[in-house]
Amino acid sequence: MIKKILILLIITIFTTMISACGSKTNDAPYDNYRGLKNLETSLNYLLKGNSEACMNSYDRAVDVFIRVNDFCNAAKAGIFLYTAEPIKQNLHFITDAENYSKLGKCDNELLIVDLLTNINDNKTINVKDYIKLDDPFISFAEAYHNKSIEPIKVLVDQKYTSNRLKSVLYRKLAQHYIDINSVKSLKLANVMIENALKIDQPNSWLKNMLYDEKLKLKLMEIKKIDTTTQIKKIKILSEKIAVVDDRND
């Protein structure tokens, strides 16, 4: 379960991403601004279900970074999108991040890629190997290594944790509490799902809302509550995502 991101605002987000990924970047603020603007656009398309538009914006972001010989930020772009939706269909972002990290000799980004790949492959890791990484990645390593949800609970409450990542973490916590399946844990699971929805609904992140509602369906099934309306809601959300993708066909 543990296994399974105004110009000032944009610059602030960019700075957060850099510190989270842990290595220096070229002194090219305007190019960084353009690159991150495309990356934020890509993120929104990703979580709204528009995969083609997501890739177009992602490619533009990477192109900006590569044109200024900034392969480390090109690698960060893939890490950024994968951690926003860490599913198998998005592993190509990690492959990109690995390739750009090697080209730019980006040690920290390579370490992040190694961590995320090992977690995805369910391999044994030693948390000491990743001690140089900043959050959220050191927390991922600790949670996976120790088979503990505690680092995730701490991370989700940090001010510096982005909404894109909080949404993912709330669902991880919700699934953890569902698996415990006690009266108290199911109440906590519901709180986590509602917290995720409070992030996803204002942003119109359809894919995240779909994940949220599917977790809510699990809760209802455990509690033996009628799921007819919930199943219809999930069906409508799924259809909306399909329509978004079709618009670029």
Radius of gyration: 18 Å
Count every helix, treating DSSP H or I runs of 4 or more residues as helices: 12
- How far is the first residue's CA from the last residue's CA? 35 Å
Strand content: under 5%
Q: Helix and strand succession?
A: HHHHHHHHHHHH
Mean pLDDT: 87
- Can you tell me the residue ranges where pLDDT is under 50 for at least 5 consecutive residues? 1-27, 245-249
Please give the share of residues in helix: over 70%
Number of strands: 0
Polypeptide structure, described:
By secondary structure, the protein is mostly helical. The protein is about 75% helix and about 0% strand. It has helices spanning about 5-20, 30-50, 50-65, 70-85, 90-105, 105-120, 135-145, 150-155, 165-180, 185-205, 205-220, 230-245. Helix 4 packs antiparallel against helix 5 and helix 5 (about 90-105) packs antiparallel against helix 6.
Topology of helices and strands:
Blueprint: H1 7-21, H2 29-48, H3 51-67, H4 71-84, H5 91-104, H6 107-120, H7 137-146, H8 150-156, H9 163-180, H10 183-203, H11 206-222, H12 228-246
Helix pairs in contact: 1-2, 2-3, 2-4, 3-4, 4-5, 5-6, 7-8, 8-9, 9-10, 9-11, 10-11, 11-12
